[in-house]
Amino acid sequence: MLENFTVDNPDVKDIKVLVAGQIGAGKSSFINSVNNAFEGRITSRALVNSSAGASNSFTQELQGYAIRSGRKKLPFVFKDIMGLEPGVLAGSQTEDIISAVFGHIKDGYKFKEDQALVHRGNEQGQHYISHPGLSDQAFCLVYIIDAVTVNFTDEKLIDKLRIIRQRISAKGIPQVVVLTKVDEACPLVKSNLRKVYRSKKIKEKMELCSAKVGVPVSNIFPVKNYHDEIETNDDADVLILKALEQIAQIAHDRLLDDA
Length: 259
Prior knowledge:
Layout: E1 15-21, H1 27-39, E2 63-69, E3 72-80, H2 94-101, H3 121-127, E4 140-146, H4 155-169, E5 175-180, H5 182-185, H6 187-191, H7 200-213, E6 220-222, H8 234-258
Parallel strand pairs: 1-3, 1-4, 4-5, 5-6
Antiparallel strand pairs: 2-3
Helix pairs in contact: 1-8, 2-4
C-alpha cells in the first residue's frame, strides 16, 4: 500500500513530515529505519551520533530525506531537525521548528542555539521563505520520544513540546509520537518484539507520554529503530511501517483539508 501511495493534489508531489524530538531519542535513526524497511537492508542516509549520553544534537542543519524502495522514489519526505534540549535557549528553537513546519525554512539552514532564524536580519533572506506554497509545508509533525526516559523527561523540554503543539494545532497541523527503544523499556518486548502491544509497561509509557505531550494514545506508535543490527527483520519492520502508514494517512488528510 505504501509503495503505491499517491498524493491527491497536483501541486504537491510528496508528503513532507517534520521529525522533532529530544536529543538521543533516535530521530535520524527512525528516518533510516523507515528507509531500511523498504530497502530490505541497513542504510545510513541520515547520519547518526553513536556516542552514548550525548548532550548536544548531532543534527545541525534542516535536511530532507526522500524515502526510496529500490530505484522507486516514494512520495514521503522526512525533514530532520536539530534535537530539542531542555534549556530555554538550548537546542532547536521552538520558533525554528514552528517555522519549518509551515514551510518557511529552506533545507541546509544551520540551526543556532542563541537565536531563531526569524530574528536574524540579513541571514534570514538566504534561508527564509516568506510565502511558502503547499509543497513547502509539512503536513504532520512527528515527535520522537525515548520510552526509557519518558518518565524522567525534563519539564522544560515538555514545555517546549507543548508550545509547539499549541502553535501548530491552531493551524490544524496533526502531531504523532513515535515511541522508540521499546525493547530497552520492557524485558517482555526485548525477548519478543511481537508482544509490544501486549506489554502493560509499554501501554503505561504510551499513556504517560500522551498525558505529558497532549497527543492522543491513538497517535502514539511504539517502534524499535535499527541501531546495531547488520540485517533487517520483519518484526521491527512491521512496527516501523505501521507507524509510517498512520503518519502518511494523517498527513494526507491534512493536505486534502488544506487544498
